[in-house]
Amino acid sequence: MPVTTANLGFPRIGPRRELKKALEAFWAGRIDEGALRDTARRLRAANWARQRDAGIDVIPSNDFSLYDQVLDTSVMLGAIPAPYRALGPQDSLAVYFAMARGTRSDQGGDLPAQEMTKWFDTNYHFVVPEVGPDQDFTLCAAKPLGEFAEALALGHRTRPVLLGPVTWLLLAKSNQAGFDPLTLLPAILPLYRELLSRLRAAGAQWVQIDEPALVLDLDERARSALRTAYAALCGPDSPRIMLATYFGGLADNRELALSLPVDGLHLDLVRAPEQLEPVLDGAREDLVVSAGAIDGRNVWKCDLAALLDRLGPAARARREIQLAPSCSLLHAPIDLALETELDPQLAEWLAFAVQKLEELALLRLGLEHGPYVIADELAANADAIAARRGSALTNDPAVRARVAEVAPDWTRRALPVERRLARQRERLRLPSLPTTTIGSFPQTEAVRKARAEHRKGTLDQAGYDAFLRAETERAIRRQESLGLDVLVHGEFERNDMVQYFGERLSGFAFTRAGWVQSYGSRCVRPPILYGDVARPRAMTVNWWRHAQGLTERPVKGMLTGPVTILQWSFVRDDQPRAETCRQIALAIRDEVADLEKAGARIVQIDEAALREGLPLRRADWNDYLGWAVACFRLAAAVAAPETQIHTHMCYSEFNDIIDAIGAMDADVISIETARSKMELLDAFATCRYPAQIGPGVYDIHSPRVPSTDEMRALLVKARGAFDPGQLWVNPDCGLKTRRWEDVEPALANMVAAARLVRAETG
After folding, report:
1. Interacting residues of 220 by C-beta distance below 8 A, sequence separation 6+
2. pLDDT of the residue at 684
3. CB-neighbour burial class of residue 546 (10 A; exposed 0-12, middle 13-18, buried 19+)
4. Which family is it part of (predicted)?
5. Strand, helix or coil for residue 631
6. CB-based contact 164:210 (threshold 8 Å)
């Protein structure tokens, strides 16, 4: 029973975010393309060596990206909209980064970035492919071939990773209404065939093709596309193909997957452990089954003994089995060894990417040679599992008692939304189309320097607070000067919208180097949510009070919602997520009450990740949406009718959950719509959304400054779908990652656009 270990993908950013620093230096003109590519080569070489040293037999290549693997695939296939093609050759960085980030007028053009959205149910963002009926495709195979050759020269015969053609087309959007991107499959299959043939000629024995779409609810057209694709791709000119599925179970797509003429099939046995036996029962004898037994998306140690018991029969029954993480380790921090300040008890419960690969190597030894070979490691692992299960760190009786007290009326506002909005209008006295921002302002070099000095102890608390107060006042004055109607304090005291709150709540721990990629150079450091959650004291009231004391205009209280805190943390897996979310909701509820008591007239509770947490299978939606919406309402419903509750949601498709968004019962929702040119508003207009809405008119993920006319056109489009009295005017998202040099002119244009449309509507 040969057992091998395989990895599906490794984090790209580097242990100390070397890729982020190189990208931002390149974009700023401080380094040239050669230096950027040298950094990328060094990171790839280190990644391959790290995986080899951890005991991995099958190491991936082409899992590295300078921005996003979906964008890489679009460029590889030549799916480049015409405006970007003029910037250079198909595989040039000028074209690549223009599609990802747009261009500014001082860069020789003024192009918006392509649309971005979430990668399945993760916080990773991908650049949405854009195709049309007249699409021309041209293969550019330099990246997958080059990185395979690069690894081979270093002594690693890797398994190149490709995004599957059907998943890529299902993720694509059409530039013409009514056009189905799947009809382009016959046009791209010859390119995939050619690439596979060239990889085989270069020495690739296996290729991993990712088709995570196989865990979705598929219609017959998508299933037929998968049959057509793999009938064409599996042949004598191709390497052996490992078809990778992840983020869920095959379920009703199991027979389809097993019918495809591929050589291997990867299963996510963390999200769907129940699928192993049915797949083994139906699989061809020669099919290599890849068991995704180690959680690629969380940080907890696996239970080695339990996995040996579970996988032992499969290993004995199959001709060949592979052990792998459930998905690419892109979503995990790199190395626990870099964490020197974690509580040692907590650290014993954790495994980051490197440690997960080491767990795979141990599992292989145990399966091939028997548990006695790894007896010491099994004993240490069992001790860690038992210690976590029984630790007082994870269980707070007071928190559990309070959750048990929650009654249905805790989730209901005192008045319906129409009557609340009338009272709020009377209290706030805002103009029509009021202007505001989502919350954060640029975290400048000075802000980052002060935070670092405070962390090191070279700037004391009094000095740091004085700096933050001065920075907040500057932000208030800038907003007043720009003419914004509702202000924010700027969030200069916050390193991250989740981490800031986690640091002030019990049950959370934080890493120093636990970074994961969100998109491009944007990295986040998710908190580790290991125990019961409570709020010892107010978290934001003093900063809000300071900001409001500087101005007569209303300043929003800014909070992160319970679902987003849950989604953007590494969450404990020893109790239902819904239970953990209720605990967080009660803590945020207390903060809402304290802000209102301090005089806040508007409180924003961001639920950027509500749609992200939606299960991939429709049958599971009602359960999730039930507790997720209830948790938001539990946090918000403590507010009086006169207090206006805002929420914000990031890149999401809202059509399918619009009823649930309405059920959240917020007074105002702001959403990202600039990249989609207001397409996402359709769902709100169709359902006659009863509350107010702020469609983003300024794409903050691009360095360009949109013109007044551009934003006015978006507002006119929104006005066509909504009563002007329902509309707010705001950027797509927070402005933390931007520069003041870009932010101020963009916001000035936004305010001017709002005033123009305000005048036009009377």
Report:
1. none
2. 78
3. middle
4. Belongs to the vitamin-B12 independent methionine synthase family.
5. helix
6. yes
At position 728, the amino acid (one-letter code) is W
Q: Can you tell me which residue has the tokens 């309405």?
A: 662
Which tokens in the block code for residue 413?
Answer: 């506002």
User: Please, how many CA atoms are within 13 Å of residue 487, restricted to the half-sphere of its CB?
Assistant: 26
Residue 53 burial by Cβ neighbours in a 10 Å radius (0-12, 13-18, 19+): exposed
Q: Residue 461: is it exposed, middle or buried by C-beta count within 10 angstroms (0-12/13-18/19+)? A: exposed
Q: Which two tokens stand for residue 66?
A: 């300078």
Top pLDDT among 662 and 195 is at: 195
- Tell me what percent of the residues of the chain surpass a pLDDT of 70: 99
Beta strand residue intervals within 364-521, DSSP E: 508-509, 516-519
Cα torsion 669, 674, 677, 679 to 10°: value is -30
Cα–Cα distance between 628 and 605 in angstroms, integer? Answer: 14
Ligand-binding site membership of 439 (annotated): yes
* β-bridge partners, 58: 6
Query: Known binder of ligand: residue 568?
Result: yes
Q: Poorest-confidence range of 48-62, 158-172, 492-506?
A: 492-506
User: Would the pLDDT of 417 be above 70?
Assistant: yes
Instruction: Select from 450, 497, 500, 440 the least CA-distant residue to 470.
Output: 450
Q: What is the dihedral of CA 479, 484, 488, 490, to 10 degrees?
A: -40
Query: Which tokens is 734 given?
Result: 């927070």
Name the residue with higher pLDDT: 562 or 176.
Answer: 562
pLDDT of residue 649: 86
The whole-angstrom separation of Cα 78 and Cα 85 is 9
The tokens describing 662, both together, are: 């309405």
Q: How far apart are CA 440 and CA 28, in angstroms?
A: 22
Q: Are 363 and 323 in contact (CB under 8 A)?
A: yes
Whether 266 is catalytic: no
C-alpha count within 13 angstroms, C-beta hemisphere, residue 139: 16
Q: Tell me if 653 is assigned to a ligand binding site.
A: no
Which amino acid, residue 71? L
Note the pLDDT tens digit of each residue in 401-410.
Answer: 999 999 999 9
For 542, the token pair is: 């003093």
Ramachandran quadrant class, 746 (left: phi over 0; alpha: psi -120 to 50; beta: rest): alpha
518, 646, 473, 589 alpha-carbon torsion, rounded to 10°: -90
Tell how strand 173-174 and strand 240-244 pair up. Answer: unpaired
Q: What is the set of domains in the chain, with CATH numbers?
A: 397-408+415-504+539-761 (3.20.20.210)
- Name the 3-class secondary structure at 338: helix
DSSP character string of 569-628: SEE-SSS-HHHHHHHHHHHHHHHHHHHHHHT-SEEEEE-TTTTTTS-SSGGGHHHHHHHH
Angle between the 33-53 and 142-153 helix axes, to the nearest 10 degrees? 50
- Quick one: tokens of 117? 């959205």
- 645-679 as b/e: b if 16+ CB within 10 A: bbbbbbbbebeebeebbbebbbbbbbbbbbbbebe
Contacts of 250 (CB under 8 A, 6+ apart): 214, 215, 256, 257, 267, 272, 275, 279
* Model pTM score: 0.91
Q: Say whether 349 counts as a known binding-site residue.
A: no
Interval 43-75: pLDDT, tens: 999 999 999 999 999 999 999 999 999 999 999
Coil, strand or helix at 291: strand
Phi, psi angles (nearest 5°) of residue 210: -85, 120
Burial degree of 408 (CB within 10 A; 0-12, 13-18, 19+): exposed
Q: Which of 161, 166, 164 is nearest to 226 (CA)?
A: 166
- Is the CA virtual torsion 759, 603, 509, 447 positive or negative? positive
User: CB–CB of 588/563 below 8 Å?
Assistant: no
Higher pLDDT, 320 or 152: 152
- Active-site pick, 266, 489, 646, 701: 701
Asked if residue 74 belongs to a known ligand binding site, the reply is no
DSSP state of 751: H
Residue 19 annotated as lining a ligand binding site = yes
CA distance 564 to 558: 14
Average pLDDT over residues 210-223: 98
755 assigned binding-site residue:
no
CB-based contact 164:208 (threshold 8 Å): no
